[in-house]
Amino acid sequence: MEKLLLGIDLGTSSVKTALVRLNGEILHTESEKYDIEFPEEGFEEEDPAVWWEKTVQALRRLTQQISPNCQIAGVGFSGQMHGLVALDRNHVPLMPCILWSDGRSGELIREFERKMDMECYYEQTANMPSTGFMLFSLLWLKEKKPELFGKIHKVLFPKDYLRMKLTGELGTDFTDASGSGMLAYKNWHISLCDQLGIPQAILPDLYDSYAIAGTVSEEVGRLTGLPAGIPVVYGSGDSMAQLLGVGAVDLGDMVSNIGTGSQITCLINSEGARNTKELNRFVHSVQGLDILSGASLNGGIVMKWINNKVFSMESFDRLVEIAAGVEPGAGGVGFVPYLSGERCPYRSDTAAGVFYGLKLAHGKEHICRAALEGMVYALRDNLAAIEKGTGISPKYIIASGGGAKNPFLLQLQADVFRKKVLVASCEEQACLGAALYAGVGCGLYGSLREASQTVSRYAPEQYEPDADRADLYNRMFQRYLRVRDAVMGIG
Predict the structure, then answer these.
(1) End-to-end distance of the chain based on CA atoms, in angstroms?
(2) What pLDDT, on the 0 to 100 scale, is given for residue 346?
């Protein structure tokens, strides 16, 4: 009987499920899409009940693909980070999840920074305040909806809600907790929570990503087709699962990810100095490592906006096809992609997106290309901050996420970053990483590093920067920086 692993990745735009062999081969995948809700300006939410409904649908189809000579040995999770799922005593959400990209707590954060010792806060949490972090969403609820806040029995991160639905057990892992704004050295920052009026009792217990949380319940088995009793591990934030899936488990490894948001991430020593306030620093699931992340709120969501609200195109591929018809530099058109404000390397919930350099001769093809280039310029801005803060300048960057599926976007990254770009051969890296947590938790691998190195492989095609395009993009990037500085004050 062959043992398989099940990885579930709860993203911002879809939930993905994958059946994985122990050698890393993905046998089957199923996914379901959903949309972000925007009830007010600056508010971004999703209904956890929709996540669960879509997950059940995907799992029903996936379990029908399991061969009689195979069995699922364990289930692992990956999920969008930072979001707040507030549960009542019956484990029912009190409201929609406030997402990582939500900006409603901006004014509250400015007040927080005026009142608090920010040097001390940063030293203890390794992060500066950001909208969308669980702590600040909780403080917003406490101030704006105190009656609802008083009903909270427990808070969870998004992927923890799905795991709770599978097993009935509450809890979270260290990686997700490190993105809450209230974790200090792998423990909840209780004195800070007491000072801010956040009850300790509502915070979930903390576990390693590969620790077993419980087993699939009989009710869930009937709903999904999963055999009851399968071990389920805690899992991690999507960034950490993705790192496992692409083989980034060693000091200095650097990964570019373009999903709904986008990030440049570098692995650093967990005991290293904390001197990069403009970046996010989170706990990695691999012992002894942290991740230093330049997180942009504006990745694929910008392209979705162009597709749906500007040109009504049929697909992202069509957008890229149109953009590819224009020379690099988009005929002088540029774009600062701060449609959702920005997080790194400059925090601003009021920053806005701006096209610049437009003339009557320009058309949709220039706007499409400028949008793609601007999205990658935002990543290079973060790459520069990482290199400056760590002294690490790798020879290559591993591409992941949706941005790793399109040759045009991969070459654009190589040219803008001025570095070789490698591509993981597995397209569903976060699902693969989630499955590896289950494999370690069930004793099928000796460690996360061993598991990742066992399954990670790279596509034969590598993307080298073209010298002429790299020089052009370097000049355009300097222009982008000047406009970006001006945009930061617009809102």
Answers:
(1) 59
(2) 80
